[in-house]
Amino acid sequence: MLLKLLFAKEEDIPPGSATIFFGYSAIFWFVVGTGLGSFNAAKLAFPDFVTGTEMFAFGHMRQVHVLAVILGWISMAFAMTMMYMTPALGNTKLWSEKLGLWNCFLWNIGLSLGLFLLWIGITSGREYSDLIWPIDLVVLVAVLLPLGINVWMTIAHRRTQGIYITNWFFGACTFMVMVTFVVGQAPELFNLTGLTEGYLTFWFAHNVLGLWITPVAAAIAYYTIPKLTGNPLYSHRIGHLHFWAIIAFYSTPASHHLLSAPLPEWLKSFASVEGVLILIPAVAFVANILLTMKGRWSMFVENIEIKFSVTGVLLAIPLNMQGGFQQTRAINWYVHGTGWIVAHAHLALLGMSTALEIAAVYFGLQQMLRRKLYSLALANFHYWFYIVGFCIYWISMTIAGLIQGAGKVYEVPYIDVVVAEHPYMIARWVGGTMVFTGNLVWLYNMWMTAREGTVLPKGRYSHELAYER
Amino acid sequence: MAGQFQKHKLGAAGIGGMLGLSMCITLFFPSFDFRSGESTWVGLDKTLSNGRVIGFSYEDPLVRGEGKPTTVVLNKDPKTGEAIDPPIRAYVYDAKAPLSAGVRHPSNMGPTVGKLSIEKGKIDQANDSDPVVFTIEATDVDGEEWHYVNNATVNNGWTAEAVLNTAGAESQYLIGRGKTVYITEGCWWCHTLLPEHTQDWQVFGTPPFLGDFNGEMPTAFGSDRKAPDLLHVAARNSSKEWMTMHFFNPRLVQPNSIMPRFDYLWGKTDANGKAIDFSKWRAEYNDYVSGKTVHPPEVPEYAPESEARALIDWVLMSLR
């Protein structure tokens, strides 16, 4: 099916094909990523679970989990939303469905290869930039560049006068992630060493979150919430405040990840101050979206996409409150390197960002397949397993992090901290496994939607139809 | 479209300008600080013992620790036979080991150290394809002590072969290969190499200094600490026997540890060339855990060519 479309003429490819293939790929990688997460969490709770085999050692699996989730699930879900939101908001069609399909195809191949190499230990050894540089080039040329070109050209060929805020984010973030990626991988490409290498590693790790994962997820909410509720966005101007504040403030705080490294002190202080300024775009975003919900709050209960979207927006509140303050020196000394940070990272990726993407994938796949979701019951099962599992994970890791911080500050022997954390490691495994289980159900639900979902009548949106199951 | 207000062009210029400014502040300005960082002895030791790059590279595409130098501890001069007290480290690059990042680009080691290494150390006379031996020497510049890299093959007449023979097998350490194992096994997902500016100092030792990384790749600081910081671990515990047991099965020495077992780093055979029976060992260990036997089974002695040996070499020699 995919192969046939890859070599078809552009005009013979049904619109929405790229969305559909990206959507199912994203869900597949989400299942893989959370499955690996659950497996790794089991190892942290029970260290002799699957032991003594190099291929299944924690240190070989952990980076596969991280990159399967970031490059597989989150980024592919972004690509999927860009494939249908960008043209819809420009009142046009996607610049090239064929490029989108090739992008999806090469992305899956490149990611599978890169993850396999990481799994067998062929790595650059740089945190979050673990992929070796030949794979980095594949990511740049076959993943990021075609995606960016498709988005930019679609925006340039729009048939509207203005550009909606979502498209501002899409166009800018696809560019900024490329710059971030090239600069972040420069140590491998150009053999930069020492502190430069250490700094650029975290320059990348920060900016891929700050300029790609969180802003694109927020951009998605600017589309889904007005679209599904029927309310216009509360204020496009506040949306622009969010957008420009992200670019001005959040492209700079990278060195707050390395406050104890011998980086220049002025750089660390600058980064900390800029890091607090994340509160400006964060408050603008959350307020804007919640005010857009005015009069339609019943949909938070009744509509599955709104349920996920609003959950994501609400999770942005603790995310940014934590994020703004935990990176200041006054707080960072206590929580740095502890489970608190792991909880915070999952709040960003598995909480805020993922919830918004799940909503967009649910909505987009139904529109492009022209089919109503197969089962509301299964979707609710997915929601509750996702949110309860996530909360168990988040709360348990936050507590574990505070224990670790106390152990660090009061000079408790490290092994006692490990013992004290044990119950929370089991809880994290239970939470992660619940998320994984929910995702399996989601994959089944979307599969059945493609096969048996009620066909949408022409000119109708999926949320205008009643569920049958 | 002609004459129409092109919103995206204005926006693109704005984004480019703002991102350019932030990159100027976070990348261009700090680059002056980074370039002026002078390498310490620790930094020189790291760049010389690690080789060109740890992790995927031309000389080591499968990341097995190929093309790395051998570090030896010398207590006598290989040429004259004179005693060296205290013993010093020498870094032996055979024909397959490309020069380290510091020697390759002396400016990496800092302006003064780089200059001293060329003028006094003659490192510019070394090349990738010929065997060469380096040492770290100290000199006095304006009343201050500076360390620099010395090309011992040129300045002292030490050949790689003579240095290895003088040191003997027991004084050779595979530090570069050991750090490769640290990278491939993902140790840095749980351990950090960066003590913090907190009470950490009391337990894990001082944070690193500015010049401690010059020419190192990757630095592998780590960010998620599920286990103790290791930057100075060998200063706290330098027992090879403890390390051996701990890597084979951490719960032999620390019952509550959640570290994975790294018994597979021993490979197929032990130090005597005898095949290691892992399933038998695990069965006996399970008997010990369940209380059926009083003593755990003996940990096999690792073979000199095993990954376990290289990893322990690196921990004991580099993390002090």
- From the spread of the alpha carbons, the general shape of chain A counts as globular
Largest sheet entry of chain A: none
Rg from alpha-carbon coordinates of chain A: 22 Å
Which class of secondary structure composition applies to the elements of chain B? Answer: alpha+beta
How far the N terminus sits from the C terminus of chain A, by CA atoms, comes to 29 Å
Give the overall average pLDDT of chain B. Answer: 94
Strand content of chain B: 5-15%
Describe this structure in words.
The complex is a heterodimer of chains A (469) and B (320). Chain A has 469 residues and is mainly α. In chain A, 75% of the residues lie in helices and 0% in strands. Chain A has helices spanning 2-6, 17-45, 58-89, 97-119, 133-156, 165-190, 194-229, 236-249, 265-276, 279-292, 299-302, 304-326, 329-335, 339-369, 376-409, 414-452. The longest helix of chain A has 39 residues, at 414-452. In chain B, 36% of the residues lie in helices and 12% in strands. Chain B has helices at 7-35, 41-50, 101-104, 111-119, 152-155, 160-167, 175-184, 200-204, 233-236, 240-248, 278-289, 307-318; strands at residues 70-76, 83-93, 132-141, 144-151, 172-173. Chain B has a five-stranded antiparallel β-sheet, with helices on both faces. In chain B, strand 3 (132-141) and strand 4 (144-151) form a beta hairpin. Chain B starts with 6 loop residues before the first helix and ends with a helix. The model of chain B has no long low-confidence stretch (mean pLDDT 94). At the A-B interface, helix 2, helix 3, helix 5, helix 6 and helix 7 of A face helix 1 and helix 8 of B.
